[in-house]
Amino acid sequence: MADVTENSPQDIVNRYRGMVETLSKYLKWFKENDSKAVDQKYNGSNMDTTMIFPVYDSTVLSFVKDAQASGLMDRNYVYLYSRKNLKTWKDELEYISNVDIMHLDDINRILSKYVLGGQVKAGMWSEAVQHGIFEHAVRKMQELIELWDHEN
Fold first, then answer.
1. Which of 7, 8, 61, 149 has the most CB atoms at less than 10 Å from its CB?
2. Cβ density class 95-118: b for 16+ within 10 Å, e for less
3. What is the pLDDT of residues 46-65, one digit of tens each?
């Protein structure tokens, strides 16, 4: 995560503006594909041993790549989950819907859980799409930044 010396609303907005502008281009696709499977299981049936792993839609892979390239993914996201007692994806969505501009870092931590976790745990990216985590996180960040820009 970026070294942060200030945490005023403007500093937070400045830190996330580029990432949100980049990721918001995926919002329409996420809306159209929520509740759909965005991966296929490949089992290597032509091989002697069978290993099943997901093959993701190219849009999901592009989103993940863009999120990672932002340099803002937070590997310490687990602390948010223990502090706020977030246990399920429903808890995450409720939390996202209720945050303000001062908690953009928290939305990013939820996003980070899925982006980073999907690198090592099969199915996390699909869960994030199917449950609307990616869509709601980016949309809420976009709304908060736009609201801040409008008011200032």
1. 61
2. bbeebebebbbbbbbbbbbbbbeb
3. 555 565 667 788 899 999 99
